[in-house]
Design goal:
1 helix; mainly alpha
Length: 52
Amino acid sequence: MATPRLRSDIVARALLRQCGQDGRSAMMLRRGDPDAGGLLVVLLGREAPPSS
């Protein structure tokens, strides 16, 4: 028997909402299958990259 999983659109909307509540900006760049689509999360920091 398959393990029940959350739909990917619900997870994506929850991540966007949590970012908004934390004062961060987030956006969905591409929307795929709402039931079983994959999620790619990219985190960008606000601090400057280390100088070489």
